[in-house]
Amino acid sequence: MDYKLLIIEDDLSIFQVIKERFQQWAIEVIGIDDFKNVIDIFDEEQPHLVIIDIQLPAYDGFHWCREIRRHHTVPIIFLSSRDHPMDMVMAMQMGADDFIQKPFNMDVLVAKVQAILRRSYAYKDEGKSLMTVWNGLTIDYARSMIYDEDNQQELTKNEQYILRILLEQVNHIVSREELMNRLWDDERFVNDNTLSVNVNRLRTKMECFGLSDCIQTKKGLGYMAVTKE
């Protein structure tokens, strides 16, 4: 499959370094010329993954992440020199799949992008017809959506994958280590806080179905998806 990345970054030197590296992997890289019309460019290009800085001309990266998430579940990685923990928390709560601080190691960025692309698209055909019904809720893996008769919520790729792993072992504890290994393939690239944020965000989306208590934290052990009586 031919992949396309959209890089929302106003530092041309960083953009060029990223572009040249990913072109070595035959991945098309698109940049932004007009930072007031990012969504128009996104809609025109339909990228498979977005890498976005926080500090940008006109509007910041949080704004554009929020706008993209209104209608799309495409994976998003933040790449920023800002190092306050709340920046990472905000990014994850808005639907980002990862957060990498500048200066960054290009090999780590490549590994993360490859893992997310593989997770999101490499086995897409395999999962097209897969749906799971759990506690009266339908999980549609092909559309990254959960719904019942009254409500529906879109899931990010990470949220969907976490839920899928938990439901594979429903009513049994899944350790944090297993979740991190399966999500990111190699836990050297994992920030432990990222998993917690994703699970909490998934619980928040479950609230509108009355199921927030169905993903339980087992202190010191991991998480468990439970079936209601």
From TrEMBL:
Keyword Transcription part of the UniProt annotation: yes
GO MF: phosphorelay response regulator activity; transcription cis-regulatory region binding
Residues annotated as domain Response regulatory: 4-117
Domain OmpR/PhoB-type: 129-227
One of the GO BP terms on file: regulation of DNA-templated transcription
Signal sequence coordinates: none
Subcellular location: Cytoplasm
Name of protein: DNA-binding response regulator
Lineage of origin: Bacteria, Bacillati, Bacillota, Bacilli, Bacillales
